[in-house]
Specification:
Length: 251
């Protein structure tokens, strides 16, 4: 690290849990952020400010006026721009050290396989089950840890699915792909503005912990938040032996 970096990251370096060693792990890491909306905004902003060396932002959508109530990475002036491009601008303004790649496309099965294989950690900031399952399959196959978040109306959830661990569940262990879950999206259902900030910030914190290998992650817990009462519930999670995605992976 040069003098500017030592200053920029000094409040991290001062932490016993981080130090020079942890900060260097962040600088060497590649975070794949899928979805540059409500969750992706705080996720990408904190990963960039914290000095994650390489960030790939994937989003096929454009910034819309209705996004600005909660997608804090975007601005009024950038309405109409691709979200990944607008996000890249925001991250560059916070930390020009970070190499940001903006991919303005849908996260297809093929794209995901290549992108996930090169990532240190993957952050699922999307809003539909089909993409969530595709991301999970790619992460299980490549054994790359996945930090998953979801937020709708006044309810949020966040968990880590760490395919490097033999005992940790994957996303499909908890939400089997053949089961029907109510598909609800912010675009039709509404979402409390700071809820995506709360959940996305937890995702960013978990990703930084995963990269540095510090603390205890949410790899065996699903956190549920009811923002009406601001009550968090932690559910212990377990691998499912008959999981269609990770069931054949050795324990
Ligand atoms: Zn599984």
């Amino acid at each position: 690290m040069n003098d500017q970096q030592l200053l920029r990251y000094s409040r991290h370096i001062l932490l016993d849990e981080v130090g020079i060693e942890g900060q260097e792990k962040l600088l060497a890491a590649h975070a794949l952020v899928i979805g540059a909306g409500g969750l992706g905004s705080p996720v990408a902003l904190y990963l960039a400010s914290a000095g994650v060396g390489r960030i790939t932002l994937v989003d096929h959508d454009h910034v819309d006026l209705t996004n600005l109530q909660r997608q804090v990475m975007h601005t009024t002036a950038r309405v109409g721009q691709p979200k990944a491009v607008s996000g890249k601008t925001a991250l560059g303004e916070i930390n020009p050290d970070v190499k940001v790649v903006a991919l303005c496309e849908r996260a297809s099965e093929e794209t995901l396989a290549a992108l996930v294989a090169s990532a240190t950690v993957v952050l699922d900031c999307t809003d539909n089950f089909a993409t969530r399952h595709a991301i999970n399959r790619a992460c299980v196959n490549a054994r790359v840890p996945l930090v998953s978040g979801a937020a709708i109306r006044m309810d949020g959830q966040v968990a880590v699915f760490d395919a490097r661990s033999g005992s940790a569940p994957c996303y499909a262990c908890l939400f089997p792909p053949d089961q029907q879950f109510e598909e609800v999206q912010c675009s039709t259902m509404g979402v409390f503005a700071p809820l995506v900030g709360i959940i996305g910030t937890v995702q960013a914190a978990e990703a930084l912990k995963v990269i540095m290998g510090i603390g205890e992650t949410l790899a065996h817990r699903l956190l549920l938040l009811d923002a009406r009462s601001m009550e968090w519930t932690a559910i212990r999670t377990q691998r499912s032996s008959d999981c269609a995605v990770c069931g054949t992976r050795p324990a």
